[in-house]
Structure formats: C-alpha cells, structure tokens
Design brief:
There is one protein chain. By secondary structure, the chain is of the alpha+beta class. The chain has 12 helices and 13 strands. A 4-stranded mixed sheet has the order 1-8-9-10. A 4-stranded mixed sheet has the order 6-3-2-11. Strand 4 and strand 5 form a beta hairpin. The radius of gyration is 22 Å and the shape is flat. The mean pLDDT is 93.
Length: 406
C-alpha cells in the first residue's frame, strides 16, 4: 500500500544547463528538418563544451521512393542552413561568455543521411501500417497535486528556474547568467504536499562587480523574492531550509564549466522521479521515434483520465516491438482509485487515439510539425498547449468522452 505521509524531492535545470543547451540545439535541428519535410527522419545528438558545438547523427527525407542521391541532396540542403539556427538558439539562451559564445564558438556538424537498412520494417508500405522504430517501453503520468497535473516537487522546481530566467531575460536581474539548477523537497501528509522542507538553488552569476560580492547570502537575498513567488501561500515557512549556491561562487558555468550532451536529463524532462519513465530520451528525435511520441501519448491519456475525475493519479505504460505497428502491451495504474476498472481503460484509451500505433499517435496529436525546440527546457509535460501546435499532448479534450464511456 502506498505511503500517505513522506518527504520527497525533485530537481530541475535551467535552459542554460549544458545538457539543456545540447537538447535545445538537437530539437532546433529536428524543427529545421520537419519544417522542410513533415515526414523527415531525424536522430541528432549534440555535444557542447568550452567554445565548441558538435552535432552528429542520421537524417533523411520522408519520401520512401527517394533515391540515395535525393536523400543526400535533401540532407545537404538542410544541413547547410543549420549553423545560423544553432547559433541563434544559443544566443536566445543567453550565452555570450568568453568560454562559450553564441557567435564565436567553433561549430562542427557531422549529420549524415540515414542508412536505408534502418528504415526496413519501420516505414509504412502498401500492405502494412508503419511499424515502431524500435522496441521499448514508455510511460505517462498525471496527478492532482498541481493545476498542471504534475508532481508538485518537479513543478515547483521548474517554476523557480522559469521565474529566474524571466528576470534574467528581461534585464531585471542582470547579475544572473544562464546556467542554474533547483531542487525542492516537500513533506506530504495524506498524499498532499503540506510544507516545503528544503529549497536548493545554484545559479550562475556574473563576476564580482565593484564592491558587490556574490556570496551565498547575497545570492539568496537576490533570488528569494522570485523563488517565494512560485509557491502557494503557507507552503514555505521559517522552518524551510535554504541552500543557495552552497559551494559559494558560481561564475564559471554552462558548457565552459561542464560538457553537455543530448538526452541526459530524462527525469527532469518527465516526472521528477515521482513516476516511472522509459529508457529513451526525447530531444533530437523526430516523432516517428516512439521514445518521444508514445511517451507524449501516454501523458496525454493519463492527464485526461485525471482531468475527467476518474482518479487522483494515473500512470500508463505502453510497449512496442521494432517494425510492429500495434503496441505489444498497454497498462493502466489508477493507484487505488475504484471509480472505474483499469482493465476497461486499457481497452478504451488506445482506441481514443486510433489504436496507439505510431502513425495514429502522430496524426492525433499532430506531431509532424516544427514544435520541439520550445520543449527542450523546463520539462516536456505540465506545459500549456500553444497556438502553433506545441504541447498538443497537454490538451484535455478527451474528458467528455471518458466521462461518457466510463
């Protein structure tokens, strides 16, 4: 039986964290290819380090009857236009430092056409639906802890860094630099968050300016009003322990302080450790990869279950075999709720998205669009759907149908 009283922690990292810089660049590449061809295939890995940006991976056009020469020409045309997009992404994050500068960092791109062998058994053909691009398991989760239907520890950790980023980008807090991490520890009673036990924020800052010394105490005084603004009244108290830049100075950060790689922050990207996640990362992958699209579909379905009032918490698992369209399993956990039999939902939910095949998921959520760079930081879930189609998996448009069917 699940515990009702406990202490739990989640962390987040900012858009300027080295791994998130890499994720942003990889998803900028995905958007560039999908903008040119909605059926393009992309698997892009990025590494960033001191004054260096390196891209690698496989790409190709979506047309099945393309010749090798056509795929190579398509790849070269998009790759040739990538560098200014990548540099613009780094500039938007805010990196103009001697150790990592959007304009002067060395840039190398090793993207190349995907092997035709990889597509065998995966792409749609006349006699079958499109198969999954790989075997694997994916999870989705939703809960009633926050308005976003996300675990509170993670949502507050994200919100802290988003609020500080807003202050940095607006010029309100010019002392702040892009790299940052946060961590929130909550005490739960009867399954509900009742108190913030500890807050951890490590935030990169500019070098000492004149008489200003960016000590841990000075940094806490600087960021505390922004941090407090993200919590509901009464959740933070005098008993809450704060750790702000606990090592002291944090001047050297970002890719200059630590190399960044695509896909190393999957707990930050998903549910903060409060729910399972699959083994695959999201960023850098086009939506034919079920690591990404099926995880989005599971979140979409779980969120609608909770929004429909069928459970306070819902976790969904789905699995696939490479080259096979239909899921090999579909599992629903309502965490003790008895308003509906989970087995009934296991039959209903896949059918609400066309059987949960890779093609059906992409069609239902309209994923073949350049909407991914915006998802690279502050979590892929708990976000607001936007007018361009981003975060379509956060819609709650199945609620009425679920209530009717249940």
């Amino acid at each position: 039986m699940a515990r009702s009283s406990y202490v739990f922690t989640s962390e987040s990292v900012s858009e300027g964290h080295p791994d998130k810089v890499a994720d942003r660049i990889s998803d900028t590449v995905v958007d560039a290819f999908l903008g040119a061809d909605p059926e393009a295939r992309v698997a892009c890995e990025t590494m960033v380090t001191t004054q260096r940006i390196i891209l690698a991976g496989e790409v190709r056009a979506g047309q099945l009857d393309n010749t090798k020469e056509q795929n190579e020409a398509f790849t070269k045309s998009i790759v040739a236009a990538l560098e200014p997009k990548v540099r613009a992404a780094v500039k938007d994050i805010g990196y103009a430092q001697a150790g990592f500068h959007w304009q002067s960092a060395d840039y190398a791109c090793y993207l190349h056409p995907q092997s035709a062998d990889i597509a065998q058994g995966v792409d749609a053909a006349a006699n079958k639906d499109e198969g999954a691009g790989d075997q694997g398991i994916m999870f989705g989760h939703a809960c009633s802890e926050t308005p976003e239907m996300m675990p509170a520890t993670l949502q507050y950790s994200h919100n802290i860094l988003k609020r500080l980023a807003e202050a940095r980008h607006s010029g309100e807090r010019p002392e702040l630099e892009p790299d940052a991490k946060s961590q929130v520890t909550l005490r739960y009673e009867n399954g509900k968050p009742v108190h913030v036990e500890q807050i951890v924020v490590s935030h990169q800052h500019k070098p000492r300016l004149g008489a200003v010394e960016y000590s841990s105490e000075a940094m806490r005084a600087l960021i505390e009003p922004y941090v407090l603004s993200v919590f509901p009244d009464g959740l933070v108290s005098k008993a809450t322990k704060w750790h702000v830049n606990p090592t002291g100075r944090f001047e050297i950060g970002g890719p200059d302080g630590d190399a960044g790689l695509t896909g190393r922050k999957i707990i930050v990207d998903t549910y903060g450790g409060a729910a399972p996640h699959g083994g695959g990362a999201f960023s850098g992958k086009d939506p034919t990869k079920v690591d990404r699209s099926a995880a989005y579909a599971c979140r979409y379905l779980a969120k609608n279950v909770v929004a429909a009032g069928l459970a306070q918490r819902c976790t969904i698992q789905i699995s696939y075999a490479i080259g096979v369209a239909a899921p090999t399993s579909f599992y629903v956990d309502l965490h003790g709720a008895d308003s509906i039999d989970p087995e009934k939902l296991e039959k209903i939910l896949p059918e609400l998205i066309g059987g949960a095949t890779p093609r059906a998921i992409r069609t239902h959520l309209r994923l073949n669009r350049p909407i991914y760079a915006r998802s690279a930081a502050y979590g892929h879930f708990g976000r607001q759907p936007d007018n361009e189609g981003g975060f379509s998996w956060e819609r709650d448009d199945l609620v009425a149908e679920l209530k009717r069917l249940s």
